[in-house]
């Protein structure tokens, strides 16, 4: 037990240091330096060094009590900034996933409609390309079948051949918008919603009802992968929260705006990767362990998960609601 408590304490201290103190300390230091530099001379490091030397020469800087209080204040400010960044990260995560508050409902509907129109246009282009490709293949088939029976004759120049539509590229262009008809104002929100829709479309399974039970059946490796993707999304949203905080010192030190923009772009990219990985893993869990869920619920059966079994699982888990 002593060894367990020691290990737990060291892990908590490591987590506290990496998530709270270090990022917050960097932010507090940057904000303090920004207050000294200002807009007029944003890169005057000699002026900053002179100011630090002046503070170090103050009599109070050599008093133990002052140093301890200053260190405690810096650590408290760092932890406070980190907690604020985490709170902002939660708001950013909701924004990314399309869970917008009521005052933004009108903007959410407008963005969702725009995404739906773009997706529908891309979907129609893909369907037309499929039809054109099938028509070209059907037209070419009789000619290829009749070619050996033709008698030799004078060579004729072949007519122009219609280009075969690149259906793979059109399909990829549509899927870059969303994997299913958009129902959220953001790509990340639609990616999560698409996992639910695709599972229901293939298996008639209500993913929201099945996931807590399916989670209990996943092996340790599967849980670890899903947790890693979910943690990566939270970490990316927290980085976006830091970007919001770094926009504050930009009011008096403009290079902070560059820092905020860089951090926000990196966070957004990481967030998209995490959401895509999380949605893929959720679908994979249903594909690989859906039959185990049916067996655990006493529905029996062997082989792959079918629509009939998925619908029966949904009826059992919804409990008549």
TrEMBL record:
Keywords linked to the UniProt accession: Membrane, Transmembrane, Transmembrane helix
Ranges of Low complexity composition bias in the record: 142-154
Superkingdom classification of source: Bacteria
Region entry Disordered, spans: 142-166
Record-annotated membrane-spanning stretches: 16-37, 67-92, 251-269
Protein name, per record: Vegetative cell wall protein gp1
Taxonomic source organism: Streptomyces desertarenae
């Amino acid at each position: 037990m002593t060894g367990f408590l020691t290990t737990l304490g060291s892990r908590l201290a490591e987590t506290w240091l990496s998530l709270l103190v270090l990022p917050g300390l960097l932010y507090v230091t940057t904000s303090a330096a920004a207050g000294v530099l200002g807009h007029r001379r944003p890169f005057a490091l000699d002026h900053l060094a002179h100011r630090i030397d002046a503070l170090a020469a103050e009599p109070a800087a050599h008093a133990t009590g002052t140093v301890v209080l200053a260190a405690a204040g810096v650590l408290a400010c760092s932890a406070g900034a980190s907690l604020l960044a985490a709170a902002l990260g939660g708001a950013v995560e909701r924004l990314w996933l399309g869970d917008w508050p009521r005052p933004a409902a009108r903007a959410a509907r407008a963005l969702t409609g725009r995404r739906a129109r773009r997706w529908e246009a891309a979907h129609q282009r893909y369907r037309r390309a499929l039809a054109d490709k099938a028509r070209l293949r059907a037209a070419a088939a009789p000619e290829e079948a009749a070619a050996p029976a033709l008698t030799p004759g004078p060579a004729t120049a072949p007519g122009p051949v219609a280009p075969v539509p690149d259906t793979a590229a059109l399909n990829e262009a549509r899927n870059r918008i969303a994997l299913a008809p958009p129902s959220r104002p953001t790509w990340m929100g639609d990616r999560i919603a698409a996992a639910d829709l695709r599972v229901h479309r293939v298996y008639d399974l209500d993913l929201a009802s099945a996931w807590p039970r399916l989670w209990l059946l996943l092996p340790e490796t599967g849980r670890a992968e899903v947790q890693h993707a979910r943690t990566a999304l939270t970490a990316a949203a927290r980085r976006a929260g830091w970007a919001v905080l770094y926009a504050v010192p930009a009011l008096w030190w403009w290079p902070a705006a560059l820092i905020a923009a860089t951090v926000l772009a990196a966070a957004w990219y990481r967030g998209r990767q995490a959401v895509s990985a999380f949605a893929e893993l959720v679908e994979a869990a249903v594909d690989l362990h859906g039959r185990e869920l049916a067996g655990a619920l006493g529905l029996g059966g062997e082989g792959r998960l079918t629509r009939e079994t998925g619908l029966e699982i949904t009826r059992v888990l919804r409990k008549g609601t």
